[in-house]
Amino acid sequence: MTEGSHFEFIARAIIYQQLSTKAAATIHGRVQALCGGALSAEPLSVLPDDALRGAGLSRQKLSYLRDLSARAREGTLDTVNFPDLPDEEITRQLVQVKGVGVWTAQMFLMFRLGRPDVLPVLDLGIRKGIQRAYKLRKLPDAKRIEKIAATWAPYRTVGCWYMWRVLELNTRKAA
């Protein structure tokens, strides 16, 4: 699990989408500073668009963060009770937020809440790791991944970590 609130984790995930790590870290740091050091719904909801755009947020990401903030303030995104909710309910709530999809929800479950049995079947790293570990000729589809990973349950998250590691080790050998 990482530092900060659940809200911060989700906001950070939105900011980091489709950016290089360096660019995302810079923008994240600027937005965090505008919010007084910690990303939360209240400052994000009242900061002017110009200030957030000046920090480097695109209009689209700004709209995503506004939606996230509104849902958190309204209580339709119940991050306080996430630790007590089942994975399916957390995913359902998260994908209602603009800019948050199933993959982001799964990463939240794995890396923020430490849930042991998450299987992101569409993650390219997982797909490539399984292809290499199981010596498959082509990238497995979701159905094949679910079949292979059925034996990993109830610790499919751990299996995913190994698949990412397989991919990382293979990449190092090739370099």
Q: Tell the overall outline.
A: globular
Query: Which structural class is indicated by helix and strand composition?
Result: mainly alpha
Gyration radius, rounded: 18 Å
What's the helix count?
10
Tell me the name of the CATH homologous superfamily of the largest domain.
Answer: Hypothetical protein, domain 2
Overall pLDDT confidence = 93
Secondary-structure element series: HHHHHHHHHH
CATH third-tier fold name of the largest domain: Endonuclease III, domain 1
The poorly predicted ranges are: none
Helix content: 55-70%
Note the main sheet. Answer: none
State the assembly state of the protein chains: single chain
Separation, N- and C-terminal Cα atoms? 31 Å
Topology:
Blueprint: H1 6-16, H2 21-34, H3 41-46, H4 49-54, H5 59-74, H6 87-94, H7 102-112, H8 124-133, H9 142-149, H10 156-174
Helix pairs in contact: 1-5, 6-7, 8-10
Characterise the protein shown here.
This protein is mainly α. The protein folds into 2 domains: 6-112, Orthogonal Bundle (Endonuclease III, domain 1); 124-174, no CATH class. It is built from 10 helices and no strands. It has helices at residues 6-16, 21-34, 41-46, 49-54, 59-74, 87-94, 102-112, 124-133, 142-149, 156-174. Helix 1 runs antiparallel to helix 5 (59-74), helix 6 packs across helix 7 and helix 8 crosses helix 10 (156-174). The protein is globular, with a radius of gyration of 18 Å. The chain starts with 5 loop residues before the first helix and ends with a helix. The model has no long low-confidence stretch (mean pLDDT 93).
